[in-house]
Design brief:
- The chain is α/β, with parallel strands linked by helices and 169 residues long.
- 37% of the residues lie in helices and 13% in strands.
- It is globular, with a radius of gyration of 19 Å.
């Protein structure tokens, strides 16, 4: 929200996201969001639901393409080239943003059927939600994350960006 930026400075958002089709915060957080978003010169979001949320708050927002689709493939390949990963064994790549028992069981079954180890990458913001999972949960640098996705024989994801990069690669 760039709350630390002086009010007179120009602020622009590009392709931000509320992460939901509706606003999930309490009234105090909502009022703070509205206040700071009204200080922006321009607001754009990735989802039409975000446009609707902003409209409800009297903020003019535009829906735009996610920035991952604006870059040349070479931008991502340059990042991948910085990775020091040595991928030699068969793996099932999992980027599960919202872990639950069903997803855990599905990953285990896929792993067994494919004779693959599971490389599961965590949401770095909240690693506690993976407690009780039977394998190591990794936190990766972006170049390693992209390398795993590009080279994965199979990807299981509930993350928008993991799906985007799966399509790109």
């Amino acid at each position: 929200l760039l709350a630390f930026v002086q009010a007179a400075k120009r602020k622009i958002s590009y392709a931000t996201s509320f992460g939901w089709d509706y606003y999930t915060g309490n009234d105090d957080a909502k009022n703070r969001m509205k206040f700071y978003l009204n200080r922006f010169s321009a607001v754009s979001v990735r989802e039409t639901a975000g446009v609707d949320i902003c409209r409800d708050w009297n903020i003019n927002a535009t829906a735009v393409l996610d920035p991952v689709f604006l870059c040349q493939h070479s931008v991502f390949q340059d990042l991948i080239n910085r990775s020091t990963l040595q991928l030699t064994e068969n793996y099932l790549f999992a980027y599960i943003f919202w872990p639950d028992a069903k997803k855990k069981m599905a990953l285990k079954e896929l792993s067994k059927r494919l004779h693959s180890k599971i490389v599961c990458v965590a949401d770095a913001l909240d690693q506690n939600k993976y407690q009780g999972w039977d394998w190591d949960i990794k936190i990766l640098k972006i170049e390693d994350w992209l390398t795993y996705i590009k080279n994965a024989p199979m990807i299981v994801a509930d993350s928008f960006h993991a799906v985007c990069f799966s399509i790109i690669f």
